[in-house]
Amino acid sequence: MVQVISTSARLLAGTVLAASLTISAASAQQPQPSNIRGSIESVDGAVLNIKARNGGERKVRMSDNVTVTGITKAALSDIKSGDYVGVTGMPQADGTQKAIAIHIFPESMRGLAEGSRPWDLKPNSSMTNATVDQKVEAKDGQTLTVKYKDGEKKVTVEPSTPIVTFVPGNKSELKPGAQVIIIGAKKAADGSFETARVNVGLDGLTPPM
């Protein structure tokens, strides 16, 4: 039996396909969030003028209710089983991760962006936000096993690995010379960026992540 497709059905299918392609193209053209690392050069009201670590200038407009979080030094001994941490890591040949940096989340931030994903600090680096399941002394540092909802990773931490933690901050700490990292800044049509959160290194610290 030959099936006859009506003209209206063909038109409907074509309209749906065209709409799908339009949505896909629009999604592809939307600017992707960016991570901005650098030094504040000046503050103009709600706009931070930042000298990016990778070169160039960035103008970042803060939202009216911007959250400022301080980043301060911590130690490997501060990491305990059960802590929620972020591990900036590099893959090793044996399948483990070598920590480039670790940040300890306060309890109020537990569960934030849980999981493991590519990170832009170095080529092939990753960011894993997870709970410390086990901490074992090693010959040249320590080994952490961290678990998240979709898996786990074994992480080698050297004595020289930077360890930091998050503390409450305020806008007065956003001043020239301060080192910041802004995660997921949205690019505006004029080339500037927008954010609702700024992480700032305290006491001259450069955020290592």
TrEMBL record:
Domain of life from the UniProt record: Bacteria
Secretion signal span: 1-28
Source organism per UniProt: Tardiphaga alba
Keywords: Signal
Protein name, as recorded: DUF5666 domain-containing protein
